[in-house]
Design brief:
The complex is a heterodimer.
Chain A: E1 8-16, E2 22-31, E3 36-40, H1 47-55, E4 62-67, E5 70-71, E6 82-85, H2 97-106, H3 112-125, H4 141-153, E7 159-163, H5 171-188, E8 191-196, H6 199-205, E9 208-213, E10 216-221, H7 223-228, H8 233-238, E11 243-253, E12 256-260, E13 265-270, E14 279-284, E15 290-291, E16 299-310, E17 314-321, E18 324-332, E19 345-350, E20 356-358
Parallel strand pairs in A: 3-8, 3-9, 6-7, 7-8, 13-20
Antiparallel strand pairs in A: 1-2, 1-4, 4-5, 9-10, 11-12, 11-14, 12-13, 14-20, 15-19, 16-17, 16-19, 17-18
Helix pairs in contact in A: 2-3, 2-4, 3-4
Chain B: H1 16-58, H2 61-66, H3 68-74, H4 85-100, H5 104-114, H6 118-128, H7 137-144, H8 151-159, H9 167-172, E1 175-177, E2 183-185, H10 193-224, H11 227-242, H12 245-256, H13 261-268, H14 284-308, H15 312-320, H16 325-353, H17 357-362, H18 370-379, H19 384-408
Antiparallel strand pairs in B: 1-2
The chains are: A alpha+beta, B mainly alpha.
Chain lengths: 361, 417
């Protein structure tokens, strides 16, 4: 079976709750069959609303959502066949784990034998084989979470939606659940639409990430592209750490530009600046700036160390550089003979390609 | 842990349990002192009155106290044949005092309850005993009336020997203990209490049912509406709570009477003819309508407090898993509201079963309940022991319902708020 490119399609979707403010603005999004797409964004950015529209609990104010080419705006939630994992799990507290999982199968009038087979399979998939007769209240948070995932998958839905499913778990559990969900997705190939505000989660699990802000998709691309090549300063700020300089373009020529700052000048990669005189924000990832670079780099600056924080695998160094006292460097602890001491002046270098001149903040 | 491992000791060598007790002692005393006023209050206002009610309901000392010597002498009498001379003598002496104190009438009435025709026999004895000579009282008494030779009459006296009786309880369910000591029903035209009991349970049941049917949607709305609307609705639910019970009942009288607003409306829309207005008051209908309205908040509030805790995502989860809204409601939402339903139903039923003012005012003859009968005996017949007995029967009934409920649903499952 060939994969359908636009298995889930948001077509010019607008959503407003009060008729005054658009929570979602002109959303266009295509999701491929079998893909793991994450909607990432700060709270209030409209990502959960999108998920609710897809699930059928909210109706788009304008536009249409297609599932496998069929418009679904007028289909009630229970007929959409979309599995959903809720933020607080939403397990039925008066039913055992088995009954919870059997619920979607029972309403589909499957035979008892078939139900038992499917529930067993789903439970062993989330490695909860012996828990069928427990009540949800007797399970830990992580176990409840797995039951919720199993329940959303047990009836073989074409799409599974997950609304910040790991939000209530502690850090270690959250990380191991991320891998578990990722592996389940890989092994059964279901289409997953995942909502989170945790960028680490999004980067770990997704095929593609849609970064939401202010009701719009700011960027939709694979995790590595999102991190390496953010298209605007919101994405650059939101994903990973980022050093920024505000300035004005003073020159543009074949693939590079000069940005004049209050103090000094940077040679940068013009992403969203077109002409001289435009205001811009230059974004540099901390790991792209090197201390005492051996090779020649087109940006070389001196900075004064203002703070050194030990982080185990790396050391964070805060510098005052070109008038920006929040310039962060990450120095791997394996690197030796670097003279990182408070108050020292060090040479910092980076390539113009890694200094992305984006829209002004 | 087995005893062989020995007791765990603290660092100072004191057994851990003892040390714990010592350190908790102060807190325990403090906690007890905090609840002591309430405990005292409960004992004074609740336990003592109930105890008093109970002793009053079984108290039968009147006859016992009037014939002290007789009952003492009767102790050795087996009741098979006529009693010996000592009993006759003791009875003569007791009765002489009663006649002298002019309290013989009470004894005559009481003993006539036990044996019909006793009154005239005793009255005759009261007249004749003045001329009695000393000694051989048996002969003298038997001479006064030949019925004194009938052992039945002496047995009737003996039956009233105990200071306690359960006859009031039997009366409460239209039964009595006859001459032979057997428990039988009263004659058919005098069986009123059993009808009242059945009616009380019936009214309480249907009021509970109506309250449930009306309160469930209201509570659901309350729990799901946005704050600003739900607050308004909440006030509407609570407003009757803040109004005097009497005022509410009186307003139902205004609404429901034959020339009342509801009837006027029915006539106006042509539902009934003007000369054929239905009676909606002074019968069971009035009791149902008024009690349902008055007890409604007691159903709404527990339901609301339970529904408030049910996450809306559960219904959504149900729907997303493929259940139609109706199925999701009955399989997911409804079972989760059962604790609230239980609490509300129990509350309303128990309140309804002992309801007094409303049935008294709008119930008429066919709408009065057992509590009205109790009040009647308290105020009109002054048979307090009977009123107490019925009150206790009501209380026992409520406790039985509570027990059954506990068996069926479990009291831990009740949520009152």
């Amino acid at each position: 079976m060939s994969k359908k490119e636009d298995f889930v399609k948001f077509d010019k979707v607008d959503k407003s709750y009060d008729g005054k403010v658009l929570v979602v603005k002109n959303l266009n999004l295509d999701i491929e069959e079998g893909e793991f797409v994450t909607m990432l964004g700060p709270s209030g950015s409209g990502k959960t609303t999108c998920l609710m529209m897809l699930a059928g609990f909210e109706t788009p104010t304008n536009g249409e959502i297609y599932l496998d080419k069929n418009p679904i705006s007028n289909i009630p939630p229970h007929k959409r066949g979309i599995g959903m994992v809720f933020q607080n799990y939403a397990l039925f507290p008066h039913m055992t784990v088995f009954e919870n999982l059997a619920f979607p199968l029972k309403v589909r009038k499957m035979s008892q034998v078939e139900i038992e087979k499917k529930v067993d399979k789903a439970l062993s998939m989330v490695s909860l084989g012996g828990f069928a007769n427990r009540m949800p209240g007797q399970l830990s948070g992580g176990q409840q979470q797995r039951v919720a995932v199993a329940r959303a998958l047990v009836f073989d839905p074409s799409v599974v939606l997950m609304d910040e499913p790991l939000g209530a778990l502690d850090k270690n559990l959250r990380e191991s659940m991320q891998y578990e969900i990722k592996h389940i997705h890989e092994s059964i190939g279901v289409t997953v639409v995942y909502v989170t505000h945790d960028q680490g989660e999004a980067l770990t699990m997704s095929n593609r990430i849609a970064v939401f802000n202010d009701g719009k998709v700011q960027q939709l691309s694979s995790p590595d592209k999102l991190y390496e090549e953010p298209v605007n300063s919101f994405v650059a700020e939101f994903i990973g750490e980022n050093n920024t300089f505000g300035g004005e373009v003073s020159e543009i020529s074949n693939g590079t530009c000069r940005v004049k700052l209050e103090k000094g000048e940077i040679i940068a990669n013009p992403i969203s600046v077109k002409s001289v005189g435009e205001k811009t924000t230059v974004s540099i990832r901390p790991e792209r700036a090197l201390i005492n670079p051996k090779d020649k780099m087109d940006n070389n600056q001196k900075g004064k160390i203002e703070e050194v924080i030990y982080h185990g695998d790396h050391t964070r160094v805060r510098l005052n550089l070109l008038g920006n006292s929040e310039f962060i460097l990450k120095v791997p602890n394996s690197s030796q003979n670097l003279d990182i001491k408070l108050g020292n002046e060090i040479n910092i270098g980076w390539n113009s390609h890694d200094a992305r001149a984006l829209d002004p903040k | 842990m087995s005893s062989e491992t020995g007791k765990i000791l603290t660092t100072d060598g004191i057994p851990l349990e003892e040390s714990l007790k010592q350190s908790e002692k102060k807190n325990k005393i403090k906690a007890f002192l905090l609840v002591a006023p309430l405990l005292l209050f409960l004992i004074i206002t609740y336990m003592i009155p109930i105890g008093d009610m109970f002793s009053r309901s079984i108290d039968d000392k009147m006859v016992t106290n009037m014939l002290p010597k007789t009952y003492k002498a009767m102790e050795n009498w087996d009741g098979k044949e006529l009693p010996p001379e000592e009993v006759f003598e003791a009875f003569y002496l007791d009765y002489k005092i009663l006649v002298k104190n002019k309290t013989a009438g009470k004894l005559q009435t009481q003993l006539n309850y036990e044996k019909n025709g006793f009154k005239s026999v005793l009255k005759k004895l009261a007249r004749k005993q003045k001329k009695f000579e000393e000694g051989n009282y048996k002969e003298q008494i038997m001479k006064v009336h030949k019925r004194w030779r009938n052992v039945e009459y002496w047995r009737a006296i003996k039956r009233r020997a105990p200071s306690y009786t359960y006859s009031k309880y039997l009366k409460g369910i239209d039964m009595y203990s006859n001459e032979d000591g057997k428990i039988v029903q009263v004659s058919e035209d005098r069986r009123i209490h059993r009808i009242l009991w059945i009616r009380t349970v019936e009214v309480a049941f249907f009021v509970t049912l109506f309250c449930f049917l009306m309160a469930y949607p209201i509570a659901h709305l309350l729990a799901t509406l946005p704050m600003k609307y739900s607050n308004l609705l909440m006030i509407c639910v609570l407003l009757p709570f803040w109004t005097s019970l009497l005022v509410r009942t009186a307003s139902w009288m205004i609404l429901l009477q034959q020339q009342g607003i509801v009837n006027d409306f029915f006539v106006w829309i042509g539902l009934v003819a003007d000369d054929n207005r239905p009676e909606m008051m002074y019968n069971k209908t009035g009791t149902y309508v008024a009690m349902t309205q008055i007890l409604l908040p007691f159903m709404v509030l527990p339901l609301y407090s339970v529904m408030k805790t049910i996450s809306p995502s559960l219904m959504r989860a149900g729907k997303s898993l493929g259940a139609t809204p109706a199925v999701a409601f009955f399989k997911v939402y409804f079972p989760l509201t059962i604790p609230g339903i239980g609490a509300g139903c129990l509350l309303v039923f128990i309140l309804a079963i002992g309801y007094y003012i409303t049935p008294a005012l709008v119930g008429g003859a066919s709408g009065t309940l057992i509590s009205n009968q109790i009040a009647y005996h308290m105020k009109s017949t002054l048979d307090w022991s009977f009123a107490s007995a019925m009150g206790l029967m009501l209380l026992t009934g409520v406790l039985v319902i509570y027990w059954i409920y506990n068996k069926l649903v479990g009291v831990d499952n009740i949520k009152l708020g």
